[in-house]
Automatic annotation (TrEMBL):
<dbReference type="InterPro" id="IPR051908">
    <property type="entry name" value="Ribosomal_N-acetyltransferase"/>
</dbReference>
<dbReference type="GO" id="GO:1990189">
    <property type="term" value="F:protein N-terminal-serine acetyltransferase activity"/>
</dbReference>
<keyword id="KW-0808">Transferase</keyword>
<dbReference type="GO" id="GO:0008999">
    <property type="term" value="F:protein-N-terminal-alanine acetyltransferase activity"/>
</dbReference>
<dbReference type="Pfam" id="PF13302">
    <property type="entry name" value="Acetyltransf_3"/>
</dbReference>
<dbReference type="InterPro" id="IPR000182">
    <property type="entry name" value="GNAT_dom"/>
</dbReference>
<protein>
    <submittedName>
        <fullName>RimJ/RimL family protein N-acetyltransferase</fullName>
    </submittedName>
</protein>
<dbReference type="InterPro" id="IPR016181">
    <property type="entry name" value="Acyl_CoA_acyltransferase"/>
</dbReference>
<dbReference type="GO" id="GO:0005737">
    <property type="term" value="C:cytoplasm"/>
</dbReference>
<feature type="domain" description="N-acetyltransferase">
    <location>
        <begin position="14"/>
        <end position="182"/>
    </location>
</feature>
């Protein structure tokens, strides 16, 4: 299926877009501010000798993978300001036709519905634009805030994957959630997951 890159997805004040060179200072400040918040949940490389990629290396990787449609790594912006990240990848086509979603939001913005909206936006893109059949999210069971996001979006709980992803120095168990295209009833704009979330949650939050 044709794939558009660079990609921008929006819902009111919430925008998902690729990281840019000029985002470096704001993005690095965001990471520093959220270092302790993210450390227990962020995937890590078991080979410590490789270290964290530079901003330039991250940009080049994201551009290459985004153009190829293998991994969509997007900056989450609220009112134009960097406030987190959301990603889909690895993206597999053909018989498997699936992707895994990852996400995090600035701790100062947490609890305001930005994470579920961002995940819903990207899921809808995966289903409606990429034509994928299945999207999954894998979360450490202890990460209650992230588990709530999956449940708010009606992702189906599929159980524990033991020692599944390297996080904070060890391979950790993760709780898997998934959604398939058959479980989503999309509106005319292809926004089935987001439309359902808005119907069920946004009015309670005082948003139209």
């Amino acid at each position: 299926m044709p794939h558009a890159w660079p990609l921008t997805l929006s819902d009111a004040e919430l925008t998902l877009r690729p990281l840019r060179r000029r985002d470096r200072r704001a993005f690095e400040m965001l990471l520093v501010r959220n270092r302790e918040w993210l450390a227990p949940w962020e995937a890590t490389d078991p080979d410590r000798s490789r270290g964290r990629p530079s901003h330039g290396e991250l940009l080049r990787w994201a551009e290459r993978e985004g153009r190829a449609g293998r991994h969509l790594n997007l900056l989450l912006c609220i009112g134009g300001r960097a406030a987190g990240q959301v990603s889909a990848g690895p993206i597999v086509y053909g018989a498997q036709s699936s992707a895994a979603i990852g996400y995090w939001v600035d701790h100062g913005r947490a609890g305001n519905g930005y994470a579920p909206r961002a995940v819903a936006l990207l899921m809808d893109h995966c289903f409606a634009e990429l034509g994928l059949h299945r999207v999954e999210v894998n979360i450490r069971p202890e990460n209650e805030a992230s588990v709530r996001v999956a449940r708010k979006l009606h992702l189906r709980e599929e159980g524990i994957r033991e020692r599944f992803i390297h996080v904070d120095g060890q391979f950790r168990d993760h709780l898997s959630f998934a959604l398939t295209a058959e479980e989503v009833s999309s509106d005319s704009a292809g926004r089935g997951v987001l439309a359902r979330y808005r119907r069920e949650h946004m009015s309670a939050m005082g948003e139209s």
